[in-house]
Amino acid sequence: MLNLLSYNNFINESKRPVISYDFDGIIHKSVYPGTIHPMPGPPDKWVPFVKMHERLRGEAKKAKIIVISARNEDQDIKDYVKRYNLPVEEVIITNNMNKLPYLKKANVIKHYDDNQQMISQLRGSGIELVLVDPGDESEKVYENEVKFTEEDAGEDRIKISIKNIGSVILVVTYPKYEFKDDFTEDEFDKLGLDEDDVIGKIEHIEIDDVHKGKGYAKLLMTRAIKIAKEKDLVPIYLNASPMGFSGLRTDELTEFYKKFGFRVIKKQGNNNLMLLDESEKVYESENTGIPKEAGTGSIVLIKGVELPDGKHRLFFNYIKKILFYDRYKRKDEKGQPIRMVILGDDFYRLRMENDRLKPVKIGFTSEEGKKKALGFRVKTDSIVLNDQKTPYHWETLKYTWVGNMMVEMRETLKSMPDIEW
Fold it and tell me: Which residues, 6 or more positions from 201, have their beta carbon under 8 angstroms from its beta carbon?
C-alpha cells in the first residue's frame, strides 16, 4: 500500500469501488510505437500520459485506484507514481501472467489497458475494459464487457442501467399524450402519426460525473434504441433539454442525438423535441458508399459465430453481386443506407500456419451447419456489410485475389484479438 491518499482514509474501504490502470502505455506514453513494450530509461525520462493522469485523479475522488502491471518488479512504478504525486494506493505486478486473477482478487470493476489481448482475457468476467491507444490517445469501451440491467420502473417505464455508472429510462407512450399540448393540428399531421400509435420515449439519461466523457451515454442510448425496436416502440421520441448547470447545452445534446438518427421536429424555447422515425422499408438505389474497386469477385471476410472460449473463426467468400439500398423514413426522407453483397457458393476459412495466412475451403455437411458456423440467422447466400460481422470490408473489397489480400493485410488481420486461427 502506497498510502498516498490520506484525505481518503475516512472513506469506508469496503464500499469504495476499485479501478485499476496498466502502467506502460497508460500511466506513461514511452512505449515503442505500435507495441505495448516500454522504452528503456529511468522513470524521470518517461513521457507522462497527462490525459490519463487527469482521469486517474478524477476517479480517485470516489474510487480506490491501483496499478496492475505485467512487469516483474514494482520499484520503478512506485518511483514514477511518487514523482507525479498520483493518487495510487497499491501496485500489483503479474510477472507477465494473465491479469484476470489479480483483477478479480482486487475486486476491480474497471481496468484501463493498451494491450488488445485484454479483450479476450476479460470477456465474461464482468470487469469493464477501457482500451486506450497511447499513440492517438483514443479510447474504446467494450460494450460486451459492460453489464446492462433492465428493470420495471413502473407506469410502462423500463430503467436500463450500467451499475455504478449511469442509466436511462425507456417509456411506452402515445402521441396523444406527448404531442397534444406542443403541436398544432397541422404540425401533428406532418409527423405522419396516429394519436393512438404506440411509441417509445427516451428520458433521464444520467451518467455519474466520474464516468462522463467515456462513451457510456452512447452505450445506454444504443441499448435503449435496440430495446425499443425489439418491442416495436417506433418511432422513438425524446426531449433534448439540459439537466442542471453542469450538463451539455441544448445544441450539444441535439448534435449528440442526431448521431443516432434523431431529427428535430420542434424547437421549444431551450428544448428541442426530437424523433427517430426510421422504418425498415428499403428501395434499391445507385448509392455506392464502398470502395470503387469493389465488384464481382471481390473478397468479403465473415466473422463466424462466437465459440465457447469467446473467440471466432474467420471465413471469406467472393461476391457475386453488390446491392445498394436506401432506407427510407416517413415522408420519404432518406435514412442510413444498407449495403448488401450476394455471396458465392464456396466458403473458405483463414488459418494461420507458421505465422502465414492460409485459405482452406470448407465443406459444410448441411445448410443448417453452415448457418450455425457462420453465425447467420436466416440464409447464407447474402450478407449486409457490417463492421462487426464483415471486418475490414472497406479494405478487403478492393481485392479479387486472396493471395494479395493475405500478404497486404496480414498484420492487420493478425492483430484482430478474438480470432481462433
Answer: 170, 171, 172, 173, 178, 236, 237, 238
* Domain end among 113, 141, 169: 141
Q: What is the pLDDT of residues 69-96, one digit of tens each?
A: 999 899 999 999 999 999 999 999 999 8
Q: Give the 3-state secondary structure of residue 226.
A: helix
Quote the number of domains for the chain. Answer: 3
Please tell me what DSSP assigns to residue 182: T
Q: Which residue(s) pair with 361 in the sheet? A: 348
> Is residue 134 within 8 Å of 53, Cβ to Cβ?
no
Contact 282, 338 (CB under 8 A): yes
| Residues near 138 by beta carbon (within 8 Å), at least 6 away in sequence | 132
165: CB partners within 8 A, 6+ apart: 207, 208, 211, 216
Percent of all residues in the chain with a pLDDT value above 70, rounded to a whole number: 84
The span from the CA of 326 to the CA of 328, in Å, is 6
Instruction: List Cα–Cα distances, 267 to 238, 254, 274, 329, 331, in angstroms.
Output: 12, 11, 9, 20, 20
315 plus 272 within the same structural domain: no
